[in-house]
């Protein structure tokens, strides 16, 4: 077994599996995939001719083992899944299958690390290279990653955020190697693909959950290390829709700071909740005039809406930096009596 399927691509195997399952079940299977993958598999289905029974049997068995391995990733980590696939498929095919598994949107490595207390995890990784710390943090929940970020030294913090922001894909072999080492360390203190990781959005999500002073220090240091990257991160640190996090007094201050024409354009592409946040902090007459201005705009370019929203976000950041408004972030606000 194995020789006849060795030369088949993943898309060809998926096409054969879809034919075996039939329209009803294969439709459910495919609907969770990205559109380009659905198109590729559909094209392969159209190219299929006669497929031998033993080939179908082997592909179905491989699919079954992948499901089992996927379950083991959730409960026992990557190493447990690897053992299952090795036993079922042999080393070479197991490695290929595991690569596909860790590349899928359904699997998140470092599952054990996500259940560990942040302080405990920090103690295990604090002396690792910033790139390794960034990889691990990129797979964690943003709240947990922000807790670890606050514990890192001021010198390491911006290095880690920079690497998270610049990280896109990490080879499954590297992910498994780092996870395996971390799991061994974790096993001493607790009982018991290419995969997307990191990126600017992850870095921003983590920074949005740390306290303002830590965030400011990290961003300022990043500006000296990588000014373009720091600017990208700063633009995403506060989204226009996040105005709902600002109290009414702050919104009133923002309205005095901005041009009404910019606000009308910014609200053209926003949610009813955001519109209501501004409307309820204006006089009835001013609110009516703003609503009329929005309606009179007619169709507008998305770029123009985004530019107007960015103007307001920049004003909000200036007001926050000067202490005139407060944005409620993750955790309790620090107060001085």
Task: Describe, in short, the structure shown.
With 337 residues, this protein is mainly α. It has helices spanning 10-21, 23-30, 35-47, 53-89, 91-103, 118-125, 130-139, 142-151, 156-166, 172-189, 200-207, 212-225, 227-237, 248-257, 260-268, 272-279, 284-297, 302-321; strands at residues 169-170, 195-196.
Walk me through the structure.
This protein has 337 residues and is an all-alpha fold. Helix content is 69%, strand content 1%. It has helices at residues 10-21, 23-30, 35-47, 53-89, 91-103, 118-125, 130-139, 142-151, 156-166, 172-189, 200-207, 212-225, 227-237, 248-257, 260-268, 272-279, 284-297, 302-321; strands at residues 169-170, 195-196. A two-stranded antiparallel ribbon has the order 1-2. Helix 7 (130-139) packs across helix 9 (156-166). The longest helix is centred in the first third of the chain and has 37 residues, at 53-89. The chain is flat.
Q: Approximately how much helix is present in the residues?
A: 55-70%
Please mark out the parts with pLDDT under 50 across 5 or more consecutive residues, or reply none: 71-76, 191-196, 330-337
What is the approximate shape?
Answer: flat
Helix count from the secondary structure assignment: 18
Number of strands: 2
The average pLDDT score comes to: 75
Largest sheet features: 2 strands, antiparallel
Strand order of the largest sheet: 1-2
Strand content: under 5%
Distance between the ends? 74 Å
Judged by helices, strands and strand pairing, the structural class is: mainly alpha
Order of helices and strands: HHHHHHHHHEHEHHHHHHHH
C-alpha-based Rg, rounded: 25 Å
């Amino acid at each position: 077994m194995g020789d006849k399927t060795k030369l088949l691509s993943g898309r060809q195997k998926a096409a054969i599996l879809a034919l075996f399952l039939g329209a009803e079940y294969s439709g459910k299977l495919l609907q969770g995939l990205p559109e380009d993958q659905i198109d590729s598999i559909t094209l392969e289905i159209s190219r299929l001719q006669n497929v031998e029974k033993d080939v179908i049997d082997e592909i179905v068995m491989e699919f079954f083992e992948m499901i089992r391995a996927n379950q083991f990733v959730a409960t026992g980590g990557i190493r447990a899944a690897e053992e299952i696939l090795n036993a079922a498929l042999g080393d070479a095919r197991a490695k290929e299958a595991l690569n596909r598994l860790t590349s899928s949107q359904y699997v998140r490595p470092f599952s054990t690390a996500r259940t560990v207390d942040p302080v405990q995890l920090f103690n295990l990784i604090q002396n690792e290279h910033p790139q390794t710390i960034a990889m691990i943090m990129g797979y964690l929940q943003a709240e947990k990653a922000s807790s670890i970020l606050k514990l890192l030294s001021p010198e390491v913090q911006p290095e880690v955020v920079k690497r998270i922001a610049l990280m896109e894909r990490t080879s499954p072999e590297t992910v498994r190697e780092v996870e395996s080492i971390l799991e061994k360390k974790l096993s001493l203190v607790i009982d018991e693909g290419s995969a997307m990781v990191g990126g600017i959005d992850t870095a921003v999500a983590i920074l949005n959950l740390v306290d303002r002073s830590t965030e400011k220090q990290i961003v300022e240091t990043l500006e000296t290390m990588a000014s373009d990257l720091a600017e990208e991160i700063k633009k995403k640190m506060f989204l226009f829709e996040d105005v709902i996090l600002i109290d009414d007094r702050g919104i009133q201050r923002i309205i005095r700071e901005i041009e009404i024409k910019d606000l009308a354009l910014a609200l053209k592409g926003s949610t009813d909740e955001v519109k209501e946040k501004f409307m309820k902090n204006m006089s009835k007459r001013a609110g009516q005039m703003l609503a009329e201005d929005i309606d009179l705009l007619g169709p507008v370019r998305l770029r123009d809406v985004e530019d107007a929203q960015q103007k307001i976000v920049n004003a909000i950041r200036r007001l926050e930096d000067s202490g005139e408004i407060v944005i409620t972030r993750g955790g309790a606000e620090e107060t001085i009596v």
